[in-house]
Write a structure and sequence with these properties.
The protein is α+β, with helices and mostly antiparallel strands. It folds into four domains: 72 residues, no CATH class; 90 residues, Efflux pump adaptor protein, beta barrel domain (Elongation Factor Tu (Ef-tu), domain 3); 123 residues, OB fold (Dihydrolipoamide Acetyltransferase, E2P); 89 residues, Alpha-Beta Plaits. The strands form seven sheets. Strands 3, 5, 20, 21, 22, 23 and 24 form a seven-stranded antiparallel sheet that branches. Strands 6-15-18-17-16-19 form a six-stranded antiparallel barrel. Strands 7-14-12-9 form a four-stranded antiparallel sheet, with no helix packed on it. A hairpin with a 7-residue loop joins strand 22 and strand 23. Helix 4 runs antiparallel to helix 5 and helix 9 crosses helix 10. The protein is elongated. The relative contact order is 0.12. About 9% of the residues have low confidence.
Length: 524
Protein backbone atom coordinates (compact mmCIF):
# COMPACT_ATOMS: atom_id res chain seq x y z
CA UNK A 1 0.00 0.00 0.00
CA UNK A 2 1.55 3.37 -0.97
CA UNK A 3 1.11 6.70 0.76
CA UNK A 4 -1.68 7.86 -1.55
CA UNK A 5 -3.86 5.00 -0.60
CA UNK A 6 -4.66 6.67 2.74
CA UNK A 7 -6.37 9.64 1.05
CA UNK A 8 -8.25 7.35 -1.28
CA UNK A 9 -10.48 6.42 1.65
CA UNK A 10 -13.59 8.64 1.37
CA UNK A 11 -14.35 8.59 5.09
CA UNK A 12 -10.91 9.73 5.96
CA UNK A 13 -11.05 12.58 3.48
CA UNK A 14 -14.41 13.75 4.88
CA UNK A 15 -13.12 13.82 8.46
CA UNK A 16 -10.07 15.85 7.44
CA UNK A 17 -12.26 18.44 5.69
CA UNK A 18 -14.50 18.90 8.74
CA UNK A 19 -11.54 19.32 11.05
CA UNK A 20 -9.96 21.87 8.75
CA UNK A 21 -13.20 23.89 8.62
CA UNK A 22 -13.54 24.03 12.39
CA UNK A 23 -9.94 25.18 12.76
CA UNK A 24 -10.32 27.98 10.22
CA UNK A 25 -13.63 29.12 11.74
CA UNK A 26 -12.13 29.39 15.21
CA UNK A 27 -9.22 31.39 13.91
CA UNK A 28 -11.28 33.95 11.99
CA UNK A 29 -14.33 34.40 14.26
CA UNK A 30 -12.41 34.38 17.52
CA UNK A 31 -10.22 37.15 16.34
CA UNK A 32 -13.13 39.31 15.07
CA UNK A 33 -15.70 38.74 17.92
CA UNK A 34 -16.71 41.95 19.83
CA UNK A 35 -15.95 42.30 23.48
CA UNK A 36 -19.60 43.37 24.19
CA UNK A 37 -22.97 42.69 22.53
CA UNK A 38 -25.16 45.84 22.25
CA UNK A 39 -28.65 45.72 23.70
CA UNK A 40 -31.68 46.73 21.71
CA UNK A 41 -31.86 50.03 23.64
CA UNK A 42 -28.21 50.78 22.84
CA UNK A 43 -28.80 50.13 19.17
CA UNK A 44 -31.74 52.57 19.32
CA UNK A 45 -29.45 55.04 21.10
CA UNK A 46 -27.17 55.09 18.08
CA UNK A 47 -30.05 55.31 15.62
CA UNK A 48 -31.86 58.05 17.52
CA UNK A 49 -29.14 60.57 18.11
CA UNK A 50 -30.70 63.97 18.63
CA UNK A 51 -34.06 62.61 19.88
CA UNK A 52 -35.20 63.60 23.38
CA UNK A 53 -38.61 61.87 23.63
CA UNK A 54 -38.72 58.22 24.73
CA UNK A 55 -41.78 55.97 24.87
CA UNK A 56 -42.81 52.35 25.36
CA UNK A 57 -43.83 50.30 22.36
CA UNK A 58 -46.51 48.56 24.46
CA UNK A 59 -47.68 51.66 26.36
CA UNK A 60 -47.43 54.70 24.05
CA UNK A 61 -48.86 57.00 26.72
CA UNK A 62 -45.49 56.90 28.47
CA UNK A 63 -43.30 59.90 27.60
CA UNK A 64 -39.81 60.54 29.05
CA UNK A 65 -36.93 62.78 28.08
CA UNK A 66 -34.28 60.07 28.64
CA UNK A 67 -33.97 56.31 28.06
CA UNK A 68 -34.98 53.88 30.76
CA UNK A 69 -37.54 51.22 31.68
CA UNK A 70 -41.31 51.41 31.18
CA UNK A 71 -42.93 51.96 34.61
CA UNK A 72 -45.80 49.65 33.61
CA UNK A 73 -44.24 46.60 31.98
CA UNK A 74 -40.49 47.15 32.54
CA UNK A 75 -39.58 47.05 28.86
CA UNK A 76 -36.80 49.25 27.49
CA UNK A 77 -38.04 52.61 26.28
CA UNK A 78 -37.50 53.44 22.62
CA UNK A 79 -37.06 56.86 21.01
CA UNK A 80 -40.07 58.48 19.45
CA UNK A 81 -39.18 59.04 15.83
CA UNK A 82 -39.55 62.49 14.42
CA UNK A 83 -42.02 61.21 11.87
CA UNK A 84 -44.20 59.92 14.69
CA UNK A 85 -44.10 63.07 16.81
CA UNK A 86 -47.17 65.32 16.88
CA UNK A 87 -47.51 69.03 17.51
CA UNK A 88 -48.73 68.49 21.09
CA UNK A 89 -47.92 65.63 23.44
CA UNK A 90 -51.59 65.36 24.44
CA UNK A 91 -53.00 65.59 20.92
CA UNK A 92 -54.26 62.58 18.99
CA UNK A 93 -53.36 62.18 15.32
CA UNK A 94 -55.64 60.29 12.95
CA UNK A 95 -55.20 59.28 9.36
CA UNK A 96 -57.71 60.20 6.67
CA UNK A 97 -58.77 56.56 6.33
CA UNK A 98 -59.30 56.24 10.09
CA UNK A 99 -61.49 59.37 10.06
CA UNK A 100 -63.60 57.94 7.26
CA UNK A 101 -64.05 54.62 9.05
CA UNK A 102 -65.03 56.39 12.30
CA UNK A 103 -67.24 58.87 10.37
CA UNK A 104 -65.44 61.79 12.00
CA UNK A 105 -66.63 65.16 10.74
CA UNK A 106 -65.62 68.67 11.74
CA UNK A 107 -67.10 72.16 11.49
CA UNK A 108 -66.02 75.71 12.24
CA UNK A 109 -67.26 77.51 15.37
CA UNK A 110 -69.44 80.44 14.35
CA UNK A 111 -71.71 83.04 15.88
CA UNK A 112 -75.45 82.84 15.38
CA UNK A 113 -78.92 83.57 16.65
CA UNK A 114 -79.75 82.18 20.08
CA UNK A 115 -83.44 81.40 19.95
CA UNK A 116 -85.60 78.49 20.94
CA UNK A 117 -89.14 77.31 20.40
CA UNK A 118 -90.47 76.06 23.71
CA UNK A 119 -93.45 73.71 23.51
CA UNK A 120 -95.55 73.15 26.59
CA UNK A 121 -98.69 71.26 27.49
CA UNK A 122 -101.29 72.40 29.96
CA UNK A 123 -104.90 72.74 31.07
CA UNK A 124 -107.50 75.44 31.55
CA UNK A 125 -108.22 76.16 35.20
CA UNK A 126 -110.59 78.52 36.98
CA UNK A 127 -109.07 81.78 38.17
CA UNK A 128 -108.53 81.19 41.88
CA UNK A 129 -109.12 84.88 42.60
CA UNK A 130 -112.67 84.57 41.22
CA UNK A 131 -113.68 81.55 43.33
CA UNK A 132 -116.45 82.27 45.85
CA UNK A 133 -118.52 80.37 48.41
CA UNK A 134 -122.20 80.81 49.20
CA UNK A 135 -122.58 80.35 52.94
CA UNK A 136 -125.59 79.99 55.22
CA UNK A 137 -126.35 83.21 57.08
CA UNK A 138 -129.47 81.81 58.72
CA UNK A 139 -129.26 78.72 60.94
CA UNK A 140 -131.98 76.18 60.33
CA UNK A 141 -133.27 73.45 58.05
CA UNK A 142 -133.27 73.55 54.23
CA UNK A 143 -136.94 73.33 53.31
CA UNK A 144 -136.45 73.88 49.60
CA UNK A 145 -133.30 74.00 47.45
CA UNK A 146 -133.83 76.00 44.27
CA UNK A 147 -130.27 75.53 42.97
CA UNK A 148 -129.48 71.82 43.06
CA UNK A 149 -127.42 71.11 39.92
CA UNK A 150 -123.64 71.43 39.64
CA UNK A 151 -122.73 73.71 36.74
CA UNK A 152 -125.82 75.89 37.05
CA UNK A 153 -125.25 79.60 36.47
CA UNK A 154 -126.32 81.74 39.44
CA UNK A 155 -126.65 85.52 39.54
CA UNK A 156 -126.25 87.65 42.61
CA UNK A 157 -129.67 88.31 44.22
CA UNK A 158 -131.34 85.16 42.83
CA UNK A 159 -133.43 83.03 45.19
CA UNK A 160 -131.44 79.86 45.91
CA UNK A 161 -133.15 78.25 48.96
CA UNK A 162 -135.91 78.44 51.59
CA UNK A 163 -134.94 77.85 55.21
CA UNK A 164 -136.93 77.11 58.36
CA UNK A 165 -135.19 78.79 61.31
CA UNK A 166 -136.36 78.72 64.96
CA UNK A 167 -133.87 81.51 65.74
CA UNK A 168 -135.57 83.76 63.19
CA UNK A 169 -138.97 83.02 64.72
CA UNK A 170 -137.69 84.34 68.02
CA UNK A 171 -136.11 87.37 66.36
CA UNK A 172 -139.38 88.26 64.62
CA UNK A 173 -141.24 88.18 67.92
CA UNK A 174 -138.62 90.45 69.44
CA UNK A 175 -139.11 92.86 66.53
CA UNK A 176 -142.89 92.98 67.02
CA UNK A 177 -142.47 93.62 70.75
CA UNK A 178 -139.96 96.37 70.04
CA UNK A 179 -142.44 97.99 67.61
CA UNK A 180 -145.06 98.07 70.34
CA UNK A 181 -142.65 99.86 72.70
CA UNK A 182 -140.95 102.00 70.06
CA UNK A 183 -142.13 105.24 71.72
CA UNK A 184 -140.49 104.37 75.03
CA UNK A 185 -137.54 102.28 73.80
CA UNK A 186 -136.55 103.34 70.27
CA UNK A 187 -133.10 101.84 70.71
CA UNK A 188 -134.62 98.39 71.23
CA UNK A 189 -136.35 98.66 67.83
CA UNK A 190 -133.07 99.60 66.12
CA UNK A 191 -131.30 96.64 67.78
CA UNK A 192 -134.00 94.20 66.64
CA UNK A 193 -133.78 95.40 63.07
CA UNK A 194 -129.95 95.22 63.08
CA UNK A 195 -130.09 91.66 64.34
CA UNK A 196 -132.13 90.64 61.29
CA UNK A 197 -129.79 92.54 58.98
CA UNK A 198 -126.85 90.52 60.31
CA UNK A 199 -128.67 87.41 59.08
CA UNK A 200 -128.64 88.99 55.63
CA UNK A 201 -132.35 89.87 55.58
CA UNK A 202 -132.97 92.80 53.29
CA UNK A 203 -134.64 96.02 54.43
CA UNK A 204 -137.63 95.05 52.30
CA UNK A 205 -137.97 91.73 54.13
CA UNK A 206 -137.73 93.46 57.51
CA UNK A 207 -140.33 96.03 56.43
CA UNK A 208 -142.69 93.25 55.29
CA UNK A 209 -142.37 91.54 58.70
CA UNK A 210 -143.20 94.81 60.50
CA UNK A 211 -146.21 95.54 58.27
CA UNK A 212 -147.66 92.03 58.40
CA UNK A 213 -147.51 91.75 62.16
CA UNK A 214 -147.14 87.99 61.70
CA UNK A 215 -144.31 85.59 62.27
CA UNK A 216 -142.91 84.00 59.10
CA UNK A 217 -141.75 80.39 59.49
CA UNK A 218 -139.79 79.94 56.20
CA UNK A 219 -137.36 82.55 54.91
CA UNK A 220 -135.94 83.07 51.45
CA UNK A 221 -132.17 82.88 50.97
CA UNK A 222 -130.70 84.94 48.10
CA UNK A 223 -127.33 84.52 46.38
CA UNK A 224 -124.67 86.94 47.56
CA UNK A 225 -122.33 86.25 44.60
CA UNK A 226 -122.49 85.33 40.91
CA UNK A 227 -120.88 82.38 39.15
CA UNK A 228 -121.11 78.74 38.11
CA UNK A 229 -121.96 76.18 40.79
CA UNK A 230 -118.73 74.17 41.02
CA UNK A 231 -119.70 72.09 44.04
CA UNK A 232 -123.00 71.64 45.86
CA UNK A 233 -122.56 70.97 49.58
CA UNK A 234 -126.19 70.57 50.83
CA UNK A 235 -129.42 68.80 50.03
CA UNK A 236 -133.04 69.49 50.87
CA UNK A 237 -133.70 68.66 54.53
CA UNK A 238 -130.16 69.31 55.74
CA UNK A 239 -129.62 71.34 58.90
CA UNK A 240 -127.10 74.14 58.55
CA UNK A 241 -125.43 76.54 60.94
CA UNK A 242 -124.37 80.10 60.32
CA UNK A 243 -121.25 80.03 58.13
CA UNK A 244 -121.78 76.56 56.64
CA UNK A 245 -120.93 76.38 52.91
CA UNK A 246 -123.95 75.76 50.71
CA UNK A 247 -122.27 76.09 47.27
CA UNK A 248 -118.80 76.68 45.83
CA UNK A 249 -119.05 79.18 43.00
CA UNK A 250 -116.62 79.83 40.14
CA UNK A 251 -116.65 82.94 37.99
CA UNK A 252 -115.43 81.73 34.56
CA UNK A 253 -115.53 85.08 32.81
CA UNK A 254 -111.74 84.95 33.06
CA UNK A 255 -109.69 81.75 33.33
CA UNK A 256 -106.08 80.58 33.65
CA UNK A 257 -104.12 78.52 31.14
CA UNK A 258 -101.59 76.60 33.26
CA UNK A 259 -98.67 75.04 31.35
CA UNK A 260 -96.01 72.55 32.48
CA UNK A 261 -92.45 73.82 31.87
CA UNK A 262 -89.30 71.79 32.48
CA UNK A 263 -86.58 73.31 34.61
CA UNK A 264 -84.17 73.12 31.64
CA UNK A 265 -86.46 75.56 29.78
CA UNK A 266 -86.92 78.06 32.60
CA UNK A 267 -83.99 80.22 31.48
CA UNK A 268 -85.90 80.85 28.24
CA UNK A 269 -89.16 81.90 29.94
CA UNK A 270 -89.79 85.28 31.55
CA UNK A 271 -92.73 87.35 32.72
CA UNK A 272 -94.47 89.31 30.01
CA UNK A 273 -93.48 86.97 27.17
CA UNK A 274 -96.09 86.31 24.51
CA UNK A 275 -97.40 82.75 24.47
CA UNK A 276 -99.56 81.30 21.72
CA UNK A 277 -101.69 78.25 22.36
CA UNK A 278 -104.34 76.06 20.80
CA UNK A 279 -107.09 73.97 22.34
CA UNK A 280 -108.12 70.54 21.12
CA UNK A 281 -111.75 71.43 21.73
CA UNK A 282 -111.51 74.58 19.59
CA UNK A 283 -109.75 73.41 16.41
CA UNK A 284 -108.50 75.88 13.82
CA UNK A 285 -108.03 78.79 16.21
CA UNK A 286 -104.90 80.14 17.88
CA UNK A 287 -105.07 82.18 21.05
CA UNK A 288 -102.41 84.29 22.71
CA UNK A 289 -101.65 85.83 26.07
CA UNK A 290 -98.85 87.12 28.28
CA UNK A 291 -96.99 85.07 30.87
CA UNK A 292 -98.20 86.55 34.17
CA UNK A 293 -96.78 84.07 36.68
CA UNK A 294 -93.98 81.48 36.92
CA UNK A 295 -94.25 79.12 39.86
CA UNK A 296 -91.18 79.62 42.11
CA UNK A 297 -91.15 75.93 43.09
CA UNK A 298 -90.13 72.99 40.86
CA UNK A 299 -92.00 69.74 41.49
CA UNK A 300 -89.55 67.26 43.02
CA UNK A 301 -90.93 64.19 41.20
CA UNK A 302 -91.84 65.46 37.74
CA UNK A 303 -89.18 68.26 37.52
CA UNK A 304 -91.68 70.72 36.11
CA UNK A 305 -93.00 74.10 37.18
CA UNK A 306 -96.22 75.91 36.29
CA UNK A 307 -96.38 78.81 33.87
CA UNK A 308 -99.61 80.83 33.90
CA UNK A 309 -101.38 82.86 31.26
CA UNK A 310 -104.58 84.77 32.08
CA UNK A 311 -107.21 84.52 29.36
CA UNK A 312 -110.56 86.35 28.97
CA UNK A 313 -113.38 83.89 28.45
CA UNK A 314 -116.38 85.51 26.74
CA UNK A 315 -119.07 82.99 25.96
CA UNK A 316 -117.41 80.51 28.35
CA UNK A 317 -115.68 78.74 25.42
CA UNK A 318 -112.77 77.77 27.68
CA UNK A 319 -113.79 75.19 30.24
CA UNK A 320 -111.78 74.01 33.25
CA UNK A 321 -109.63 70.88 32.62
CA UNK A 322 -109.58 71.52 28.85
CA UNK A 323 -106.24 70.54 27.24
CA UNK A 324 -104.14 73.28 25.59
CA UNK A 325 -100.82 73.24 23.71
CA UNK A 326 -98.59 76.30 24.08
CA UNK A 327 -95.56 77.67 22.19
CA UNK A 328 -93.12 80.40 23.24
CA UNK A 329 -90.70 81.82 20.66
CA UNK A 330 -87.87 82.91 22.94
CA UNK A 331 -84.73 84.84 22.05
CA UNK A 332 -82.00 85.63 24.57
CA UNK A 333 -80.19 88.90 24.99
CA UNK A 334 -77.16 89.23 22.73
CA UNK A 335 -78.64 86.87 20.15
CA UNK A 336 -76.67 86.92 16.92
CA UNK A 337 -73.36 87.60 18.68
CA UNK A 338 -72.94 84.39 20.69
CA UNK A 339 -70.89 81.31 19.84
CA UNK A 340 -72.95 78.23 19.07
CA UNK A 341 -71.91 74.63 18.43
CA UNK A 342 -73.86 71.45 17.57
CA UNK A 343 -74.91 69.31 20.51
CA UNK A 344 -73.25 66.30 18.85
CA UNK A 345 -69.84 67.94 19.42
CA UNK A 346 -70.12 67.82 23.22
CA UNK A 347 -69.21 64.94 25.50
CA UNK A 348 -70.56 65.05 29.05
CA UNK A 349 -68.50 63.87 32.01
CA UNK A 350 -70.67 64.68 34.99
CA UNK A 351 -70.19 68.40 35.57
CA UNK A 352 -67.68 68.87 32.73
CA UNK A 353 -68.35 69.47 29.03
CA UNK A 354 -65.58 68.70 26.55
CA UNK A 355 -64.99 68.99 22.80
CA UNK A 356 -62.16 68.00 20.48
CA UNK A 357 -60.46 70.87 18.68
CA UNK A 358 -58.57 70.34 15.43
CA UNK A 359 -55.04 71.75 15.65
CA UNK A 360 -54.15 73.94 12.67
CA UNK A 361 -50.94 73.46 10.67
CA UNK A 362 -50.61 69.70 11.20
CA UNK A 363 -49.64 67.38 8.33
CA UNK A 364 -52.38 64.95 9.37
CA UNK A 365 -55.71 65.59 11.17
CA UNK A 366 -54.73 66.19 14.81
CA UNK A 367 -57.19 66.76 17.65
CA UNK A 368 -56.89 67.80 21.28
CA UNK A 369 -59.48 67.66 24.04
CA UNK A 370 -60.63 70.95 25.54
CA UNK A 371 -63.00 71.62 28.43
CA UNK A 372 -65.59 74.32 27.74
CA UNK A 373 -68.36 76.12 29.58
CA UNK A 374 -71.83 75.80 28.07
CA UNK A 375 -74.71 78.21 28.27
CA UNK A 376 -78.29 77.65 27.19
CA UNK A 377 -79.28 74.65 25.11
CA UNK A 378 -81.42 74.91 22.01
CA UNK A 379 -82.96 72.20 19.85
CA UNK A 380 -79.71 70.97 18.25
CA UNK A 381 -77.10 73.44 19.51
CA UNK A 382 -75.47 74.87 22.62
CA UNK A 383 -74.29 78.37 23.47
CA UNK A 384 -70.60 78.41 24.38
CA UNK A 385 -69.78 80.76 27.25
CA UNK A 386 -66.06 80.01 27.50
CA UNK A 387 -63.37 77.73 26.07
CA UNK A 388 -63.74 78.26 22.30
CA UNK A 389 -63.11 81.08 19.86
CA UNK A 390 -64.81 81.96 16.62
CA UNK A 391 -63.15 80.25 13.64
CA UNK A 392 -61.78 77.23 15.53
CA UNK A 393 -62.55 73.84 14.01
CA UNK A 394 -64.06 71.15 16.24
CA UNK A 395 -65.25 67.56 15.83
CA UNK A 396 -69.03 67.56 15.39
CA UNK A 397 -69.60 63.92 14.43
CA UNK A 398 -67.72 60.92 15.73
CA UNK A 399 -66.56 62.76 18.85
CA UNK A 400 -66.74 59.61 20.94
CA UNK A 401 -64.54 57.74 18.43
CA UNK A 402 -61.85 60.42 18.69
CA UNK A 403 -62.06 60.29 22.49
CA UNK A 404 -61.75 56.49 22.44
CA UNK A 405 -58.61 56.77 20.30
CA UNK A 406 -57.17 59.30 22.75
CA UNK A 407 -57.91 57.00 25.68
CA UNK A 408 -56.19 54.04 24.00
CA UNK A 409 -53.14 56.21 23.30
CA UNK A 410 -53.02 57.45 26.89
CA UNK A 411 -53.66 61.06 25.84
CA UNK A 412 -55.82 63.64 27.57
CA UNK A 413 -59.40 62.41 27.15
CA UNK A 414 -62.82 62.27 28.73
CA UNK A 415 -61.67 59.66 31.26
CA UNK A 416 -58.21 61.21 31.70
CA UNK A 417 -58.88 64.96 31.97
CA UNK A 418 -55.66 66.18 33.59
CA UNK A 419 -53.21 67.69 31.10
CA UNK A 420 -50.45 68.36 33.61
CA UNK A 421 -50.25 64.99 35.39
CA UNK A 422 -46.93 63.27 35.84
CA UNK A 423 -46.03 59.83 34.50
CA UNK A 424 -47.12 58.03 37.67
CA UNK A 425 -50.60 59.58 37.48
CA UNK A 426 -50.88 58.68 33.78
CA UNK A 427 -49.97 55.06 34.55
CA UNK A 428 -52.54 54.89 37.34
CA UNK A 429 -55.30 56.40 35.19
CA UNK A 430 -54.40 54.11 32.28
CA UNK A 431 -54.64 51.10 34.57
CA UNK A 432 -58.04 52.21 35.86
CA UNK A 433 -59.22 52.81 32.31
CA UNK A 434 -58.25 49.30 31.27
CA UNK A 435 -59.90 47.83 34.38
CA UNK A 436 -63.14 49.85 34.14
CA UNK A 437 -64.01 50.59 30.50
CA UNK A 438 -66.90 52.75 29.40
CA UNK A 439 -70.08 50.69 29.15
CA UNK A 440 -72.91 50.98 26.66
CA UNK A 441 -76.38 49.59 27.26
CA UNK A 442 -79.86 49.61 25.74
CA UNK A 443 -82.59 49.89 28.39
CA UNK A 444 -86.32 49.57 27.75
CA UNK A 445 -88.13 52.66 29.13
CA UNK A 446 -91.84 53.40 28.70
CA UNK A 447 -93.00 56.83 27.54
CA UNK A 448 -95.12 58.68 25.00
CA UNK A 449 -93.97 62.10 23.83
CA UNK A 450 -91.18 64.69 23.65
CA UNK A 451 -91.81 65.68 27.26
CA UNK A 452 -91.17 62.05 28.22
CA UNK A 453 -87.92 62.11 26.21
CA UNK A 454 -86.67 65.20 28.06
CA UNK A 455 -87.68 63.79 31.44
CA UNK A 456 -86.06 60.36 30.83
CA UNK A 457 -82.79 61.70 29.43
CA UNK A 458 -82.51 64.36 32.16
CA UNK A 459 -83.06 61.76 34.89
CA UNK A 460 -80.41 59.45 33.39
CA UNK A 461 -77.83 62.25 33.08
CA UNK A 462 -78.27 63.20 36.74
CA UNK A 463 -76.70 59.87 37.72
CA UNK A 464 -72.98 60.32 38.38
CA UNK A 465 -70.93 58.53 35.74
CA UNK A 466 -73.47 58.72 32.90
CA UNK A 467 -71.87 60.19 29.78
CA UNK A 468 -74.68 60.15 27.21
CA UNK A 469 -78.35 59.21 27.20
CA UNK A 470 -80.74 59.16 24.24
CA UNK A 471 -84.30 57.80 24.29
CA UNK A 472 -86.50 57.08 21.27
CA UNK A 473 -90.28 56.89 21.54
CA UNK A 474 -90.62 54.61 18.52
CA UNK A 475 -88.53 51.80 20.00
CA UNK A 476 -89.14 52.69 23.67
CA UNK A 477 -85.40 52.22 24.22
CA UNK A 478 -82.78 54.30 26.02
CA UNK A 479 -79.22 54.17 24.69
CA UNK A 480 -76.92 55.08 27.57
CA UNK A 481 -73.14 55.25 27.95
CA UNK A 482 -71.67 55.28 31.44
CA UNK A 483 -68.55 54.70 33.51
CA UNK A 484 -68.95 51.20 34.95
CA UNK A 485 -66.73 52.15 37.87
CA UNK A 486 -69.15 54.87 39.02
CA UNK A 487 -72.63 53.51 38.27
CA UNK A 488 -74.57 50.66 36.74
CA UNK A 489 -77.74 49.92 34.81
CA UNK A 490 -79.90 49.44 37.92
CA UNK A 491 -78.91 52.82 39.36
CA UNK A 492 -79.83 54.52 36.10
CA UNK A 493 -83.16 52.69 35.91
CA UNK A 494 -84.00 53.63 39.50
CA UNK A 495 -83.42 57.30 38.71
CA UNK A 496 -85.72 57.06 35.68
CA UNK A 497 -88.43 55.20 37.62
CA UNK A 498 -88.26 57.88 40.32
CA UNK A 499 -89.55 60.48 37.84
CA UNK A 500 -92.47 58.33 36.69
CA UNK A 501 -91.29 56.02 33.89
CA UNK A 502 -91.32 52.21 34.01
CA UNK A 503 -88.08 50.45 33.00
CA UNK A 504 -87.31 46.82 32.30
CA UNK A 505 -86.27 46.23 35.95
CA UNK A 506 -88.14 48.91 37.92
CA UNK A 507 -91.71 50.24 37.94
CA UNK A 508 -92.56 53.83 38.78
CA UNK A 509 -94.76 54.35 41.84
CA UNK A 510 -98.42 55.07 41.11
CA UNK A 511 -98.31 58.36 43.02
CA UNK A 512 -95.46 59.71 40.86
CA UNK A 513 -96.96 58.32 37.64
CA UNK A 514 -100.32 60.02 38.27
CA UNK A 515 -98.56 63.40 38.59
CA UNK A 516 -97.28 63.20 34.99
CA UNK A 517 -98.97 65.43 32.39
CA UNK A 518 -101.85 63.79 30.52
CA UNK A 519 -99.84 63.47 27.32
CA UNK A 520 -97.19 61.42 29.16
CA UNK A 521 -99.50 58.75 30.62
CA UNK A 522 -98.33 55.58 28.86
CA UNK A 523 -100.06 52.90 30.94
CA UNK A 524 -103.15 51.65 29.14
Amino acid sequence: MNKYNIFSNKYLRGGLLIASGLLLGWIFFHSSAPDKVETAAEIHDHEAEGHDVWTCSMHPQIRKDEPGDCPICGMDLIPLLKSDAVMDDQAIEMSESAMKLAEVQTSVVTRGNVSKEIRMYGKIQADERLLRTQTAHIPGRIEQLLVNVTGENVRKGHLIAKVYSPELLTAQKELHEALAMADKYPAMLDASREKLRLWKLSDQQISDIEKSGKVTTVFDVFATTSGIVANRKVNTGDYVSTGDVLFEMADLSRVWALFDAYESDLSWISLGQNLEFTAQAIPGKTFSGKVTFIDPVVDASSRITKVRVEVPNPGLKFKPEMFVNGIIQSKQEGSGDQLIIPQSAVLWTGTRSIVYVKLPGADHPTFKMREITLGSSMKDTYVVMDGLAEGEEIVTNGTFSVDAAAQLAGKTSMMNPAESVDITEQVTQSHLLSSHPLSKKMIKVSGECDMCKDRIETAAKTVSGVMTAEWTAEKQMLHVEFDADKTNSDAIQKAIAAVGHDTENFKASDSVYKELPECCLYRK
